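// run 5 | inverse folding | seed 20
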């Protein structure tokens, strides 16, 4: 490294970014061998695969989130609240956007942060493919703020239907929710919605029954969960249909209106709430940075060491990273990929301090799991680690799915605090409601 105390800057506090900051903070920050800085536009971290539970009220961000500043104090790095907007690779500087409060008062001015090593882990956002009306009429699940916004709208709809039960005939007093995108988010959200609808009778909304809820899951491709093995897709489809979800495969949406989605054949799918969960891309502003090579989804192309092509001292990990594998495909944008990339970048940065050679990144697919709320789970284990893939479902799959979150907690907190968090969650279930009602 060039400096005695090099500045290692990580942009993005998602799964990969927070894990990397924790690892480097513990190894280099606490011993003051380097200055580790994590930058994020939010103050708290929520594991992105759990955002569908935030959207239904099954998960409370005020209780289950990680506060960056507090976590940084315990793990030897500093946290800067800020939104990344530009980069000067020659000057090794990044620029953060000014921030205002809800009244328009300036909180933070535009700032410049210099780095010796930069890691970009800004994640991805939903890709609406410029479909007319989607940005205006649809909810998204790219952040916990968006998930909470959907949850508030959902509670209002539940309340409206419950209140009107004695005033309107049942056929006129229903709640219709349409979700575009049959990937993991859309599938898991559909099941979670059924679950919370069944809980309402315990919290003063006995007039809201499952017969009043219609869920449309719309997928443009021939099958839901298109990136996963056929057996997983079939099992998930059977379970969702058993729960009453209306699955529309091979259905392309041409536009969104205030009444619902319009398909390519001009059919209206009526909906009171519409959510878009089809496709991902990196935020469009990234294309303004001329020092990178990009894919059509705005991902930054990297070499075998996860270093951005054509640059020095800049690594990319997570959903923003386009890492080509030996078979010509790119590493999929999954949480397990971000976790593995964070470990690889941490290893290579630490190797610079000891004069060791960097290690090329090789993605290992450990399989895929899809959680269908409290009803079931399906998935495959081992992936390319063995010659065969083991299909699992039911309680075993649910246990394995829940263990993924524990693995993430362990990566950022360590085993002792992870165990304490697990015990505290068990105790909190005794005193708090099963869903967030505010």
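// decoded
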């Amino acid at each position: 490294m060039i400096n005695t105390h090099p500045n290692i800057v990580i942009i993005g506090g998602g799964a990969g970014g927070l894990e990397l900051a924790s690892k480097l903070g513990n190894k280099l920050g606490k011993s003051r061998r380097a200055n580790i800085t994590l930058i994020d536009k939010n103050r708290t971290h929520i594991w992105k695969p759990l955002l569908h539970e935030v959207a239904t009220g099954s998960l409370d961000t005020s209780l289950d989130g990680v506060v960056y500043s507090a976590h940084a104090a315990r793990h030897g790095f500093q946290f800067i609240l800020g939104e990344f907007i530009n980069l000067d690779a020659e000057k090794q500087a990044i620029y953060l956007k000014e921030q205002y409060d809800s009244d328009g008062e300036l909180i933070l001015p535009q700032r410049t942060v210099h780095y010796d090593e930069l890691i970009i882990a800004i994640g991805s956002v939903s890709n609406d493919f410029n479909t007319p009306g989607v940005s205006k009429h649809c909810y998204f699940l790219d952040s916990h703020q968006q998930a909470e916004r959907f949850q508030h709208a959902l509670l209002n709809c539940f309340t409206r239907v419950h209140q009107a039960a004695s005033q309107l005939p049942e056929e006129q007093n229903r709640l219709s929710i349409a979700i575009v995108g049959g990937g993991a988010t859309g599938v898991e959200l559909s099941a979670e919605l059924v679950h919370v609808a069944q809980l309402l009778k315990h919290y003063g909304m006995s007039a809201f029954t499952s017969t009043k809820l219609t869920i449309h899951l719309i997928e443009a491709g021939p099958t839901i969960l298109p990136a996963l093995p056929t057996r997983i897709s079939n099992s998930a489809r059977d379970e969702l249909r058993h729960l009453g979800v209306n699955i529309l495969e091979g259905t392309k949406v041409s536009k969104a209106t205030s009444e619902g989605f319009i398909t390519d054949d001009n059919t209206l799918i009526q909906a009171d709430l519409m959510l878009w969960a089809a496709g991902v891309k990196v935020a469009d502003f990234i294309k303004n940075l001329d020092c990178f090579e990009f894919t059509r989804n705005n991902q930054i192309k990297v070499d075998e060491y996860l270093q951005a092509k054509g640059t020095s001292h800049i690594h990319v990990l997570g959903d923003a990273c386009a890492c080509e594998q030996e078979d010509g495909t790119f590493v999929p944008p999954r949480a397990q990929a971000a976790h593995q990339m964070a470990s690889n970048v941490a290893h290579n940065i630490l190797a610079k301090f000891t004069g060791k050679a960097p290690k090329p990144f090789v993605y290992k697919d450990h399989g895929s799991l899809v959680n269908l709320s409290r009803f079931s789970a399906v998935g495959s284990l081992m992936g390319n680690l063995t010659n065969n893939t083991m299909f699992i479902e039911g309680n075993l799959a649910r246990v394995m799915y829940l263990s993924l979150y524990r693995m993430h907690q362990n990566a950022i907190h360590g085993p002792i605090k992870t165990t304490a968090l697990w015990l505290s969650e068990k105790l909190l279930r005794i005193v708090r409601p099963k869903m967030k009602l505010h």
